[in-house]
Design brief:
Blueprint (H helix, E strand, L loop, with lengths): L2 H20 L4 H15 L5 E3 L7 E2 L7 E9 L5 E2 L18 E2 L1 H18 L3 E12 L3 H18 L3 E10 L4 E9 L1 E6 L2 E5 L11 E5 L17 H10 L4 E4 L4 H12 L2 E5 L22 H7 L6 E5 L1 H9 L7 E8 L4 E4 L26 E3 L8
Parallel strand pairs: 4-5, 6-7, 13-16
Antiparallel strand pairs: 1-2, 3-8, 6-8, 9-10, 11-14, 11-15, 12-14, 13-15, 16-17
Helix pairs in contact: 1-2, 1-4, 3-4, 3-5
């Protein structure tokens, strides 16, 4: 994007924010919202036709395919809208222990979690469509904050906010985001490069479990500022063969089980290798006092890191690569059979799985490998 276009986009946003400061939710506000979107989308070549018509037209790279994801975030479930500054009533359906969010943080998170889904597919972001259902009281101020939160993230990833809708009601804030991406040239097999995506299915016995970043304690604050691994995923997809992948929204153990189930295999986890975030050491208000940092790393969720199934030789190369831009850790491997298995001094007894599992190759080693029950954050 040229500097002139950046300045124009920022100017449109400033104009919108000024109008929102002067008004409550009204036709004037919605017109200003649409005008800001129009100015943003004009800066991106992928948008052939944007705001002003009944639908947008997006131009994709010849040979690529479109990747679409959508998420809805609600006050009281995915965040607690900070009410004091806005002089509003308490958050709807408030859940104890989740950090309060400003409207800007709620907007940032809503866009970031969709970008994280695109990262999990190794897709390049193109556009997003934003739908806001605003509480009547303080609607203008909330909308202003949401846009402030989304704007820098969209610009960082060259993402056009190409359309959307707004409405008001008497309940809590709802933010719906649909993100559009496109496939790029990635390594699909040894010696083969083509347009494609990472999928949850495809992990094979022997593949190493490689993760980005750290886990646990996100609900204290980090879940409000997730860093979608777009750049890292695109780099890894171009340079390494990855059999399967997903992002961690529900929880490390639960999302790992999604790959294992989709791939028809099991997974064994070296607990001592899991990178635990410092926040996982801090007690979470409202949670059981005996819940260990390891249990939180496995099940807190909302980390928005990547889990990848990588062939052994590729994993060795990947772990030596200093250009990935993120911490990479091998925490185990996929195995024949089903279910999750773990070993290590910090095994959380609360996550011991007492259900039947198929791991005949471990019959003689039950003392070290123990069945692990997938657990995670409930988005309800």
């Amino acid at each position: 994007m040229s500097q002139a276009k950046r300045d124009g986009a920022r100017g449109g946003l400033v104009g919108l924010l000024e109008s929102l400061r002067r008004s409550d939710y009204s036709g004037e506000m919605e017109s200003a919202f649409i005008e800001w979107l129009r100015q943003r989308q004009s800066s991106y070549p992928a948008i052939e036709l944007g705001i002003g018509d009944d639908a947008a037209v997006i131009r994709v790279t010849p040979g690529s395919r479109v990747v679409v994801t959508t998420d809805t975030l609600t006050d009281g479930v995915d965040f607690h809208l900070l009410r004091d500054e806005l002089r509003l009533e308490p958050s709807f359906g408030e859940r104890q222990g989740i950090a309060a969010a400003t409207p800007a943080q709620a907007g940032f998170k809503a866009l970031a979690v969709n970008l994280s889904d695109l990262a999990a597919m190794a897709a390049r972001p193109l556009a997003a469509f934003i739908s806001l259902v605003l509480p009547h009281e303080g609607a203008a101020e909330i909308a202003r904050g949401i846009l402030e939160g989304m704007a820098p993230l969209a610009e960082k990833h060259q993402l056009a906010i190409a359309g959307g809708d707004t409405n008001i009601w008497t309940q809590g804030l709802v933010i719906g985001v649909t993100a559009i991406g496109e496939t790029e040239l990635i390594r699909l097999s040894p010696g083969s490069v083509d347009h494609g995506v990472w999928q949850r299915s495809g992990a094979q016995p022997g593949d190493r479990i490689i993760v980005t970043g750290e886990f646990g304690g996100s609900l204290l604050k980090r879940h409000l500022v997730p860093q979608p691994r777009i750049k890292e995923a695109r780099y890894l997809a171009r340079n390494y063969l990855v059999h399967a992948a997903t992002d961690v929204s529900d929880g490390l153990s639960l999302d790992l089980s999604h790959i294992a189930e989709a791939s028809g295999c099991g997974a064994q986890v070296e607990l001592d290798a899991i990178p635990i975030a410092a926040d996982a050491m801090v007690p979470l208000p409202g949670s059981p006092p005996n819940r260990s940092p390891m249990a939180r790393a496995l099940s807190d969720g909302e980390d928005f890191e990547l889990i990848m199934a990588v062939p052994p030789r590729e994993a060795e190369r990947m772990l030596r690569d200093s250009a990935t831009g993120v911490r990479l850790t091998c925490i185990g491997e996929f195995v024949a059979g089903s279910g999750l298995w773990a070993r290590g001094a910090m095994f959380p007894e609360s996550l011991l799985d007492r259900g039947p599992r198929n791991r005949s190759d471990l019959e003689g080693a039950r003392g070290s490998w123990r069945p692990l029950s997938p657990a995670g954050f409930r988005h309800t």
